[in-house]
Amino acid sequence: MAINWFKYSSPASFYSLAGKMIPIFVFLAVVLTIAGLYVGFFVAPTDFQQGEAYRIIFIHVPAAWMSMFLYVIMAVWAGIGLAFNTRLSSMMATAIAPTGAMFTFLALWTGALWGKPMWGTWWVWDARLTSELILLFLYIGFMSLQAAIDDPRRADKAGAIIALVGVVNIPIIYFSVQWWNTLHQGASVSLNQAPAMATTMLTGMMIMVFASWMYSIVVILKRVRVIILERESHTAWVAELRKKEAAR
Amino acid sequence: MKPRHKKLAAIVAGVTALGVASILVLNAFQSNLVFFFSPTQVMANEAPVGKSFRIGGLVEMGSIQREDGSTTVRFAVTDTAEIIPVIYTGILPDLFKEGKGVVAQGKLSDNGIFEADEVLAKHDENYMPPEAAEALEQAAKAQKASLTQ
């Protein structure tokens, strides 16, 4: 007997499933963040060129990766919502956007702080930096468009179009350092090459990447629960939930 | 086909068309998206004439000369094929070193010297502790020595 996965495409059952999953991911996020920061700041050695300033990678790289991953996931959910009219997938897309925007901002901001002492400038208009800035604008555009439309179903559709159109920017960000001459350095870690990084540095960075994943899952699940309650507030199951909460 | 499958097909086709369109646009703007020109490109007159542009490459080994009593510095940028001399007055970034990546913005003067008004260090993608860097350097030296023998 197979598990009926479609059961969880209903907002009501996903609401309770998400509620059960959150504590697990909170635990993982806390443990991984502490472990990652410990390895990053106390175990990993100093870099031969950049000295201590290279420790930016423990925040900057996970943030930049998450900003791109989350955008793709957001666009996929938005696209599924648009194609199949499934309510929950559109809600997921809406829930992902603020976290994605936060990571994009974090990547740009930490990069600027590192760029000043290392490159000699806060900001340059090279292909990598510019396309990442466009990603921030895409997230902000998605959120403000959805906020501007009162009817949630129409807001979902309009947002999905922006999200899907913006997907072309993701490969541009990722490959910009290969396709064009940029000030930003090439990838130190990629799928088809051995990482150009000492092992402990890489370990610390990868732990922080997983920590960022866990953090994202926690806040996105929490946010989607709020969105579910908001949009389903007229339904019987939310009324029942309200009664239960009031009785407690 | 069910209507929702039709919709999905339309979305997939739309995204694909958009992707192809952006590839074509990016290809057309290829030259404008270049952040810097290499010395070879400059020698082949691909860089804009009379306008400010950036050159990028490695700082030629042994080329850095500082003028006494000022922040003026002369160095050469190379891509191992061509070399362009650069003159710059100002503060250099931490990572500016011989044999390392650099991007300089400025104009090419008539006598072939690049007069920079901004110099940025271009960092490479290698991260390692100083001991490992030293070991690598020694290995490279040993290899060179064995080659010349």
SSE-based structural type of chain B: alpha+beta
Kindly report how far apart the N and C termini of chain A lie.
37 Å
Low-confidence stretches of chain A: none
Q: What is the CATH fold-level name of the largest domain in chain B?
A: OB fold (Dihydrolipoamide Acetyltransferase, E2P)
Number of strands of chain A: 0
Shape verdict of chain B: extended
Q: Number of helical segments of chain A?
A: 8
Q: Say how many strands of chain B there are.
A: 6
Mean pLDDT of chain A: 90
Corresponding CATH architecture of the largest domain in chain B: Beta Barrel
Q: What helical percentage do the residues of chain A reach?
A: over 70%
**Spans of chain B of 5+ residues with little confidence (pLDDT < 50)?**
none
Largest sheet of chain A: none
Q: Which sequence of SSEs, written as H and E, runs from N to C of chain A?
A: HHHHHHHH
Shape of chain A: globular
Strand line-up in the sheet with most strands of chain B: 1-3-4-6-5
Helix share bin of chain B: 25-40%
Would you write up a description of this structure?
The complex is a heterodimer of chains A (248) and B (149). Chain A is mainly alpha-helical. Helices cover 75% and strands 0% of the residues of chain A. Chain A has eight helices and no strands. Chain A has helices at 11-43, 57-84, 87-118, 127-148, 152-166, 169-179, 199-231, 236-247. In chain A, helix 3 (87-118) crosses helix 5 (152-166). The longest helix of chain A is centred in the first third of the chain and has 33 residues, at 11-43. The radius of gyration of chain A is 20 Å and the shape is globular. In chain B, strands 1-3-4-6-5 form a five-stranded mixed beta barrel. Chain B has two domains: 1-33; 34-122, OB fold (Dihydrolipoamide Acetyltransferase, E2P) (Beta Barrel). In chain B, strand 3 and strand 4 (83-89) form a beta hairpin. The longest helix of chain B is centred in the N-terminal third of the chain and has 26 residues, at 3-28. With 149 residues, chain B is of the alpha+beta class. Chain B is extended and about 80 Å long. The chains are: A mainly alpha (248), B alpha+beta (149). The interface between A and B is large, with 41 and 44 residues.
